[in-house]
Amino acid sequence: MEIKIGVMKMFFLCFAFLYVAFSFAQIPVGYYDSAQGLYGQPLKQALHDIIDNHIVASYDALHTHYNTTDKKENGMVWDMYSDIPGGTPPYEYAFGTTCGNYNSENDCYNREHSWPQSWFDESSPMVSDLFHVYPTDGYVNGKRANYPYGEVNSPNWTSMNGSKLGTCSYPGYTGIVFEPIDAYKGDFARTYFYMSTRYYGEDAGWTGSPMVNGAELEPWAMKMMLEWSDADPVSQKEIDRNNAVYGIQNNRNPFIDHPEYAMEIWRYDEVEFEVGTNKNITCGDSVLLNPTIVYYDENALIYNWQPSFGLSNSTIKNPVAKPIETTKYVLTVTCQGSCVVKDSLTIYVSTNLDLDFVSDNDSLFETPFIFQFANASADLTNYTFEWTIGDSTFVNNNSYFSYEFFENGTYTVSLLATNNQNGCFDSITKPNYLYTNDDSSSSIESKENSQKYNVYPNPTRDYLHIDISNLKEADYGIQIIDPQGKTVYEENSMKKAHSIDIRAFKNSGVYLISIHDKAKNQTEIRKFVFEIME
């Protein structure tokens, strides 16, 4: 019977111990309810109210509490100024090896105010707040003194675990700073977030430092600490210590329980982003837009791309862009704090048509006159052509256009080619076409003199003959364009009468032959009909 009672007592004791341990191993239900849905200063105020008025431990009691809050699995003191996570520390302390005097590292440990007590005039309750007073090597603690935390490229002194003292290399401050090792930078960052929030509005009379103004971190320090917190996420060590301190002080470090609170307070209204570099595409192709954005919660951002045409979706971060012409896109990003930032890029769109039409001569003597699209490589099957001459516009599906001039004058001729499948288009405008049907000497060149050569036979099935025997010997260039607007024959130099074998031409229809007098820089256009032999 006694054995049973002893067993039952042991059972209930173990159960009670497990219950207490479990109760301290998680965030109490509803603990942060009053902070839900808040950002910026309202969130900071709500968190302050939640963790305010904690149970104040005596300064002397801290050494006792460290047995609960800062004990390694091997039973030694967890000293962040000497520990090497994942490695072998240069030395370790058993509990009770407290300072005392010290002359070097590994002499003794003491209580390190990570937020130096001179910054708040050694006042209570800050002086014994376990969330920022850690057990550390006394010598390293003395070296750190009350210097701010920072980053050091060229240290004046380095501890055995790699902590450094020297001139700050982080932008915004150039004084002496102390840099802990990377593995504990997040711990100290979240410690500072706690101090800034717990004593929010309670810092009147604090001396401050180059790192803090009262309980508020200076901008350079806040930026650095946010980077430290992001680079060194919450560890199990922090979680366990947070739970242990809660059991002593009855308050928690919200930035261990919810690391996102830091961004939601201090960076909720700041977005850093670049929309990207300009793009070059061929019309009909697409490109993914991929801006670089730095924000604590991208899902909370609102995106708006303008103009919206050519985009798969104008309200997402990464739309697919398929514009049919060169377009400048502006991305506007709105954050939870109602901040608005903008950036832009241009997508340059080419058609690869190299759009042009023949008869780039100075005067027109025939009427009707045929303008024809000239390009050796383009597929014009799916294009509609819009010709504009003066104030008149004509649309057809052919790559050539016949126009009859009725009045002498100078004309501007434009061609717009639009792809019927994807809407891509290209255009070209040529000014200063002079048309005259005046045989008098005042005209630039008479119609009679324009008959410089003969082309025969017309129609033809095999050979095309060009007779220039009535002209002085000169250098001529020849270009033949088929009914689809493609250049199918080209010769850069012809000095005498010439015959061209055209039996390999693939399409029957009306062809244009252009002969260019290089000496006079004049071009004449003739039509001929080619018929494929059966």
List its traits.
alpha+beta, 9 helices, 29 strands, disordered N terminus, 19% helix, Immunoglobulin-like, 534 residues, 4 domains
Q: Can you walk me through this structure?
A:
- The protein has 534 residues and is an alpha+beta fold.
- It has four domains: 265 residues, no CATH class; 79 residues, Immunoglobulin-like (Sandwich), CATH 2.60.40; 97 residues, Sandwich (Immunoglobulin-like); 84 residues, Macroglobulin (MG2) domain (Immunoglobulin-like, Sandwich), CATH 2.60.40.1930.
- It is 19% helix and 29% strand.
- The chain has nine helices and 29 strands.
- The strands form ten sheets. The protein has a five-stranded mixed beta sheet with strand order 16-22-21-18-19, with no helix packed on it. The chain has a four-stranded mixed beta sheet with strand order 9-15-14-12, with no helix packed on it. The chain has a four-stranded antiparallel beta sheet with strand order 26-25-28-29, with no helix packed on it.
- Helix 2 crosses helix 9 and helix 5 packs across helix 6.
- It is rod-shaped and about 120 Å long.
